[in-house]
Amino acid sequence: MADQNGLAKDYEYAVDVQQLSFDYGGPAILDNINLRLPPGSRCILVGANGAGKTTLLRILGGKRMIKSSHVNVLGKNVFTEVPNATYLGTEWLERSCTRADLSVDYLLYSMGSQRWPDRTRRLLEVLDVDLSWRLHQVSDGQRRRVQLVMGLLQPWEILLLDEVTVDLDILVRSDFLQFLKEETEIRGASIVYATHIFDGLGSWPTHVAHVTEGSIQEFRTMDDFEELEQAKQDHVRDERLDSPFMEVCYKWLREDREKLRNRKPIDPETGLPHTKWDELSANMKKYGDKYYNYWK
């Protein structure tokens, strides 16, 4: 295959996952995941916290090894070869270096910005980053923008984004998503993006995967998305939602929440679902106060 620049691509699918399952020795985190995305795709992962989105992205990025499943990215096995993939997650802000007295100019130079001067200027403009910023003096949102500039300096073939736009203001987020769309359309690069922020995404993705309880329950292309077409025809909408696409995503998430609630036993005292946190609280009352009673 070739991208829109005529550059040859020696793979049919940017992402090719077959029968992927994963656990930590207990209940399945991922259960029989199958996902195929052609080059140039922009795939949104829709799912509640704990659905398995982050685990899936980390496996695609080669950051978590599994032995028996078929997981190819850019035509390469992510565990035995090194595809040109970039993974960006929220954990970057937790590192001590993100609050060090370092300038953005120094950081970008250390990342090789001189090799891609035009691309560096473009990213600085899109993400509204000032080279004179010092990390210990800026906000978390500004640090996130610095992370994105650093992470995207080197041209990538596939980008794995895990909630990294949550700290961006609405204007920067809009410009950033447009930049990413251009990357896929011009260079034939691909993106898998997990997010809970669906406003402004109605025309952005090419594919949508609904992840729940470790499985992909629905997989749609934007050209064959019956639920979205139905939502477009419905004129009575939730005033909190700004697009038919957001309506569909919220509908999926509400259904997931109800299914999960219905599987939990109801506490007869509170009338609410009984969770593991109730067990922990009960154990603390039973055993903890025996040894740590600060009121006596």
Automatic annotation (TrEMBL):
Database matches in InterPro entries: AAA+_ATPase, ABC_transporter-like_ATP-bd, P-loop_NTPase
Keyword Transmembrane helix: no
Domain named ABC transporter: residues: 15-238
Gene3D superfamilies: P-loop containing nucleotide triphosphate hydrolases (3.40.50.300)
Record bears the keyword Hydrolase: yes
GO molecular function terms listed in the Swiss-Prot or TrEMBL record: ATP binding; ATP hydrolysis activity
Highest taxon above the source species: Eukaryota
SUPFAM superfamilies: P-loop containing nucleoside triphosphate hydrolases
Key words, A-Z: ATP-binding, Hydrolase, Nucleotide-binding
PANTHER family on file: SKFA PEPTIDE EXPORT ATP-BINDING PROTEIN SKFE (PTHR43158)
This protein's name: P-loop containing nucleoside triphosphate hydrolase protein
